[in-house]
Specification:
Blueprint (H helix, E strand, L loop, with lengths): L5 H14 L1 E12 L2 E11 L8 H17 L7 E8 L1
Helix pairs in contact: 1-2
Length: 86
């Protein structure tokens, strides 16, 4: 599992935009010691966008992911992304 902090998540979204990758979902995690715990307050599911045309899915999922990142105030929160190449 690859986890990204908020700053690196923004870079990942720029990469996805450049590579035409859609975001299917995002899941937040907290790390305490050697334990990784899901943060159920930070889960985003963009799968409903996958039924639309390819360009719309890519553009809208990235835009929605950026809005999701804006909600994060905890700098220790790490994120996992599920990416889709259409």
């Amino acid at each position: 599992m690859e986890l990204f902090n908020k700053k690196d998540s923004e870079k990942l979204l720029n990469f996805c935009e450049h590579q035409k990758l859609a975001i299917l979902g995002i899941e937040g995690f907290n790390i305490s010691g050697d334990k990784i715990t899901p943060d159920l307050d930070f889960i985003a599911d963009f799968s409903c966008l996958a039924t639309t045309d390819k360009k719309y899915f890519i553009d809208t999922s990235i835009k929605s992911a950026r809005k999701f990142l804006e909600l994060i105030t905890d700098n220790d929160l790490l994120l996992e992304f599920v990416l889709v190449r259409n």
